[in-house]
Specification:
Blueprint (H helix, E strand, L loop, with lengths): L1 H15 L6 H12 L2 H7 L7 H17 L7 H13 L1 H22 L5 H21 L4 H10 L16 H11 L13 H12 L5 H17 L2 H6 L11 H18 L5 H20 L4 H23 L4 H19 L1
Helix pairs in contact: 1-2, 1-4, 2-13, 2-16, 4-5, 4-6, 5-6, 5-7, 6-7, 6-11, 9-14, 10-13, 10-14, 11-13, 14-15, 15-16
Length: 337
């Protein structure tokens, strides 16, 4: 388990180096990505759930390499798909869908710089790389297919057809977004990641990279709360949050890219971020009011206040973000266990 957590952090660093200038943000992001509530709750009990956290950054790096024109064939993507395929098609299925959405958004952003013919060529290169990678693991494809259709998961009439969550489901998402409640859902994110993602959403910077990751945050977040999409990502069965590792990867990468830009937001944006942050903390505490929630809320609120003060008064963010990343992981781990 420990080895897989280290490997997940390393592959995050491999991916993020294209987008950041200062390595401290990469290290902070790697810590946040590898040590999160998903790995605490799912990974420790089911170590196989950690493997897709290692593979996904390599697959998406392959997408970046192909779209960036660096190469027509990405050994990174091919190898990652092949290894994941040999480990099982369940998470490969999720990762391929995530990669397709990631590529679609990137292609949309590239459309202004390249013509349609070039986009089609890139799509063809993506398909070729994907088929090669999956083909290398095809030795277990037939047994996996047989297992899928004989296990009762497929066609078990538990699939959710609701595109949007109902009021109660939405309240539950907001309740555990910042205050952990692992008996409900294991999707809590650290405050530092939330602030970074809100920053990239509120920025008025027209930089194409920030705009691209703004779309990633919005689209992946909306898909995650959709019961229908949760069913699709779980093999057209009951809606599941097991693909949260992919959403969380996008959120952490987006947050570190925002912090690396060292952008100073307008007062209005800071008020929006601060009020949303403490509103969600209050909702997480008082929705199910108990002693544990009070303790969690006090710790998170104090940490959030300190973080927001230092973030808005310090010109140099590099080391502070890295230290806060370590602190966030320690706090989240303590509150989880």
């Amino acid at each position: 388990v420990i080895g897989q957590l280290y490997a997940a952090g390393i592959t995050f660093l491999i991916y993020i180096q294209r987008y950041i200038k200062r390595r401290q943000f990469g290290i902070g992001g790697a810590i946040l990505y590898s040590l999160n509530i998903y790995s605490f709750c799912y990974g420790i009990y089911y170590p196989t759930f950690l493997f897709p956290m290692i593979v996904l950054p390599l697959i998406l790096k392959g997408v970046d390499d192909i779209c960036g024109g660096d190469k027509k064939y990405s050994l990174c993507m091919i190898g990652a798909l092949a290894i994941q395929g040999l480990s099982g098609y369940y998470f490969l299925y999720m990762e391929v869908i995530i990669a397709i959405i990631y590529f679609a958004i990137k292609a949309m952003m590239l459309e202004k710089e390249r013509n349609i013919k070039e986009i089609i060529c890139l799509s063809g290169a993506m398909i070729k790389n994907g088929l090669i990678g999956i083909g290398l693991s095809s030795v277990i494809f037939v047994p996996s297919l047989y297992g899928l259709f004989s296990c009762g998961r497929a066609g078990n009439n538990q699939m959710s057809y609701s595109l949007l969550p109902n009021g109660e489901q939405l309240q539950n998402y907001f309740q555990v977004l910042l205050v952990p409640d692992v008996y409900n859902m294991a999707i809590t994110i650290p405050v530092i990641v939330f602030v970074g993602c809100m920053g990239i959403l509120c920025t008025k910077n027209v930089d194409i990279q920030k705009k691209e990751f703004k779309y990633y945050v919005i689209i992946f977040s909306l898909l995650f709360i959709s019961p229908l999409w949760g069913s699709i990502m779980n093999g057209f069965s009951y809606s599941s949050d097991r693909w949260f590792f992919g959403v969380y990867f996008i959120l952490v990468a987006s947050a570190m890219i925002y912090f690396d830009s060292n952008e100073v937001l307008e007062i209005k944006a800071k008020i929006i971020i601060g009020s949303t942050l403490f509103g969600l903390l209050a909702w997480g505490i008082f929705k199910e009011f108990n002693k544990t929630k009070i303790i969690s809320g006090i710790i998170l609120a104090i940490g959030s206040i300190i973080f927001m003060i230092i973030l808005n008064t310090s010109k140099s963010r590099e080391n502070k973000i890295m230290y806060f990343s370590v602190g966030s992981v320690m706090i989240l781990g303590f509150l989880t266990f």
